[in-house]
């Protein structure tokens, strides 16, 4: 759940050659506008190309034969919405007072009314046999969540590591392969609209500016998304250009952190109609400065961990005819942290490092989506090109003697990577609400990663000199065909079967030079292929109530290790693929006219031959297969909406992870459970809003989430405990027709907690590392619309 949607537009593409001149027999009960519009689309055999709601209120029942325009007119007659025909095959529904709605808070919409596209077709969350959570644009604005880490507490079973901005890993359902990032592919696929934006890199931490919603699909999604979705999908859906009206908005924030430096943010967007209402252009931009709060007494610097992030997006949409629509978008972001965010245990907010450890990340994305709709189906082509560069510097003095023969006492390690990923996805889906539904797709990607690593050292005198370097290049080509078919075998019961056949080819080259040892090079290939199946059975108990069972699988290809002054043992030169099978039983229920909504799932996962990224004693990373594990858990999300304007959400995950087989080539023993997988995590979010004076609306928001205790590593000897802390935030604001103001406070208790027991791989085994929470921070936000 974790979200309520009230978007600005709902677009339908009609199924016939004209704008549905024929009459359709409708049978729609009285229910909220959003649910009524969903039923209309399904019963009329039209495709939804967007998601929206008209705010609060209930539409009248609609029974009888009408054209689609007539049905829309009747359903929306008493609503705060209007609609117009965009072409002979599409209709747009939007708020009647668009300029007013842009700034005035809208009552949250029940999760049962939310539409998602993460399953590659537009569906209501209440009708999907999969665990899906959504955070709407309204909820993102209310909570001030600016990146994936700040959304995690609003979603059941979603956690992030806390190494630092653009250095973290997303974790779903406690399915963690460890805290470190290396050669293994991410277990969570991160998408910007339809384009994957990560491979084995850490999450790029895109700032959530001008975003329509966040969709999270939990459980392996190998059948639809392939290897990068072992534990699920995190999808950022951006706002698309509005062809109907001009609009713009700017907001600015400033905040002060106790014992730290101030922070500031500036962001905004502008929307322009194009082509006489057949298209639009949308621009957004932002600049953010996160003030530091750690002082380095050795370097004599205060607030060393400052981070700057800036970027923007430009998108164009147009409809050349009644069948095709085209969306083009470009996104860029640059991020730079002046230093890392960890300290030594018991050092508080002070540290004593020899050198600064900065980190930088830049990402650029070009995407094109072409959509065509006919009476019997819909074709979507998604093309994406991603360039992601990131680099980190570490103090490697603790292992300098391993790389030099002259008694060096100072060393710096530079780890950099440049990834270029091209992806192409074609998916053809059936349309309408008949008893048989299907989709078929083809996917291809070509990924090139250059990852040079350098260690420089110096003795008591003299400059730094390179004593170790590994020039590595990986090229991964993936090709897959996938599909799914669903049949209503008896009224209310639907069986769906799907799968993905894939082939993955990897080529790795590496050239290692070292001061102490002979140089070495290799060029090797590895090929992987297989099938990831999925089967589900769902029972529509009543409208809005669903019980489902699903079996699904995820797969990650293996690869090759390189690097290190000394070569690895033969058994560790390669790492094999791993596979996860998920057994799940879930329920989606609502009561009290949709005011209470509950989503829950029981799951049991068997994870074979787990890949994990680890570090050698010299600090150089490598990837290994540690063994097998099983994960059993229960997750739940609840929300209740009172008529007085109060909405409360709660989420929680209970899980138990156990290692059931140890790979003797990796270690004689492991920790009992998976690292970074607490037994319990959960959160509560309350939003209250009411009119107070003329057009002003008061909004109060309170948020708190708990992250339980876990270990940082598989290795019992190097596995300090972390977690067991609460994150909290409170805000109060007023918003009017065009302007808004808000005051907020995060970490109000000024708690000091170890959020992540890791920071530097070269001293990790020698110093107990901790990453404290940002101290109490107080701030304000001002916004205005045009």
Keywords:
mainly beta; Maltoporin, Chain A; 50 strands; five-stranded mixed beta sheet; Phage tail protein beta-alpha-beta fold; 23-stranded antiparallel beta sheet; 7 helices
Describe this structure in words.
- By secondary structure, the chain is mainly beta.
- The protein folds into two domains: 1-109, Phage tail protein beta-alpha-beta fold (3-Layer(bab) Sandwich); 232-306 and 325-355 and 385-785, Maltoporin, Chain A (Beta Barrel), CATH 2.40.170.
- Helix content is 6%, strand content 55%.
- The strands form twelve sheets. The chain has a 23-stranded antiparallel sheet that branches. A five-stranded mixed sheet has the order 11-16-17-14-15.
- A hairpin with a 5-residue loop joins strand 39 (611-615) and strand 40.
- Helix 1 runs antiparallel to helix 2 (68-75).
Structural category is: mainly beta
Q: How many strand segments?
A: 50
CATH top-level class of the largest domain: Mainly Beta
Q: What fraction of the residues are assigned to beta strands by DSSP?
A: over 45%
Instruction: Please mark out the parts with pLDDT under 50 across 5 or more consecutive residues, or reply none.
Output: 1-21, 47-53, 85-90, 97-104, 106-113
Largest sheet at a glance? 23 strands, antiparallel
What's the structural domain tally? 2
Q: Given the structure, what is the number of helices?
A: 7
The level of helicity is under 10%
Distance between the termini: 32 Å
- CATH T-level fold name of the largest domain: Maltoporin, Chain A
- Label the CATH architecture of the largest domain: Beta Barrel
